[in-house]
Specification:
Shape: globular
Helix content: under 10%
Number of helices: 1
Low-confidence stretches: none
Structural class: mainly beta
Radius of gyration: 14 Å
Largest sheet: 4 strands, mixed
């Protein structure tokens, strides 16, 4: 019934030991949402820079069906919409 601490589900970690990539909160993406963008884009690390009315959110949240709790699951949301319950973002740091 709420978000969880990082590492609460260790069986869900990735091959490079990343935890909790889906299911805590919907994560805002840099990408703009395009209905068929992935059908036309490059296969590795596609980023849709063409501005539309919607941004992409990925990963589901704690109050969604478990089918949504995966990185590949995305929805479109107006970027002006706010949710104190289920929208968030992930901080990324590049190591030297």
């Amino acid at each position: 019934n709420q978000t969880t601490t990082v590492g609460s589900y260790p069986r869900g970690k990735t091959k490079i030991d990343l935890f909790d990539l889906g299911g805590n909160v919907w994560e805002w993406c840099f990408d703009w949402y395009g209905e068929d963008y992935y059908k036309k884009s490059e296969k590795q690390d596609p980023v849709n820079l063409k501005e539309t009315d919607f941004r992409s959110l990925r990963g589901g949240s704690w109050n969604d069906d478990r089918d949504c709790a995966r990185c590949a699951f995305r929805i479109r949301v107006n970027p002006d919409l706010r949710s104190l319950i289920s929208f968030g973002f992930r901080c990324v740091r590049t190591l030297k």
